[in-house]
Design goal:
Layout (H helix, E strand, L loop, with lengths): L18 E3 L2 E2 L7 H15 L1 E10 L2 E12 L2 E2 L6 E2 L4 H14 L24 H5 L12 H9 L7 H9 L16 H15 L3 H13 L20 E2 L6 E2 L9 H5 L1 E2 L1 H12 L6 H8 L13 E3 L4 E3 L2 E4 L2 E2 L2 E8 L4 E9 L8 H13 L8
């Protein structure tokens, strides 16, 4: 199981429009398909990736979509293959939350004790703190006996109650609610529970009705089990000291965000929907990407955690590792560029997060004045 996020979990916003200031026009992105392909090919070789699928879009226009390597022996990787997207789904969750706020079904300032009265510190934690990861709950993936159990039984199903228990059983918090910021899977698990209890609907139904259906994201699904829709990109891991296929390891350890599957085309479609706030009001979009965490924890004005994602030098970024899948997703607020990279590892892989390594190299070429700064 790979659970770490490769950013300092702290971050801040640069440019939100297409102009940095009066009279200063943002240069167009570099977008030569051959150069992009060469960067990915070199990055895949350097990382020892087994397969890489990637794409780049400017607004809604595809620049390139390509696949390298093999999904399995004798099965080449293909751009239409589906995979677990992990933390990228947190961008869906924060958008859904703000949509529900606008529908009058939940309030960001409501104390979560309304739905979880017996939870540690619930009378001090608001819904807003959960989505901003400022609630202070200990991240259960840092709890040693949880990690050992999940690794020993990779097909085990964890309930949300079990996951939350690992985090709160000792009655401790990382910090008093709202006083700092630190990424925590626990905050996201609790937020999923709050959303479902507030609406009386499942996350699957809420996503299908509010996001996947209206946006035409037919390749994005919320499976009820461990399946991945066909064709599936297969993932492999050395987590248990042997090289093995982990495609169908149970993702329930990651709760709501870990279950969703998609492909690069749907995530390429999602980039400008998220990055321009198409599904929510302008006010809520600006709140979603605002540097409100700057000054908390390690967050800075140009590198900060917003609502379900990092903003790094003007890029909305998520970079999950989940059950052998290494992912990277980014949308540049200034140029409207979306980049999606997904990678799997060979037996001789040299990088822990090959997709994010490749993503950073692509961004350095595409927007040289705004590289990824973590």
């Amino acid at each position: 199981m790979k659970t770490k996020r490769l950013f300092p979990l702290v971050l801040g916003l640069c440019i939100v429009g297409r102009e940095a200031s009066v009279g200063q026009t943002i240069p167009p992105p570099n977008a030569d398909p051959d150069r992009l392909q060469a960067i990915v090919h070199a990055g895949a070789q350097a990382a020892g990736a087994k397969a890489v699928v990637f794409g780049m879009w400017i607004a809604d226009r595809e620049v390139i979509a390509s696949a390298l390597g093999a999904s399995m022996t004798t099965v080449p990787a293909a751009t239409d293959m589906h995979y677990r997207i992990g933390g990228i789904a947190e961008t869906f969750m924060s958008t859904l939350l703000l949509m529900l706020v606008e529908q009058g079904r939940i309030s960001l300032d409501e104390k979560i004790s309304r739905w979880l009265p017996d939870l540690l510190a619930a009378d001090q934690v608001t819904v807003r703190m959960l989505v901003a990861n400022t609630a202070g709950y200990i991240d259960y993936v840092t709890v040693d006996d949880f990690v050992k159990l999940d690794l020993a039984e990779p097909f085990r199903t964890f309930t949300d109650d079990e996951l939350i228990h690992y985090a709160v059983r000792n009655g401790r918090m990382n910090f008093p609610p709202g006083t700092s910021q630190r990424y925590s899977h626990t905050d996201n698990v609790i937020l999923g529970q709050v959303i479902q209890r507030a609406t009386g609907q499942s996350m699957k139904d809420l996503y299908d009705k509010n996001i996947f259906g209206p946006t035409g994201m037919a390749d994005t699904q919320f499976p009820v089990g461990q399946e991945i829709q066909s064709p599936a990109l297969h993932a492999f891991t050395m987590d248990r000291k042997i090289y093995e296929d982990c495609t169908y390891w149970n993702p329930s350890w990651g709760s709501t965000p870990a279950l969703i599957t998609s492909n690069i085309y749907d995530l390429g479609k999602w980039g400008p929907i998220l990055g321009t706030g198409r599904l929510i009001s302008r006010a809520h979009f600006l709140e979603q990407i605002a540097p409100t965490s700057a000054g908390k924890g390690q967050n800075k004005p140009d590198l900060f955690f917003a609502y379900g994602f990092v903003v790094a030098n003007g890029w909305i970024v998520q970079n999950p590792n989940i059950n052998g899948y290494s992912g990277a997703f980014g949308y540049n607020l200034a140029t409207g560029v979306t980049i999606v990279v997904e990678a799997t590892k060979s037996e001789t892989a040299t990088a822990d997060a090959p997709a994010f390594d490749i993503f950073r190299k692509l961004v350095t070429y595409v927007t040289p004045a705004a590289p990824i700064n973590f």
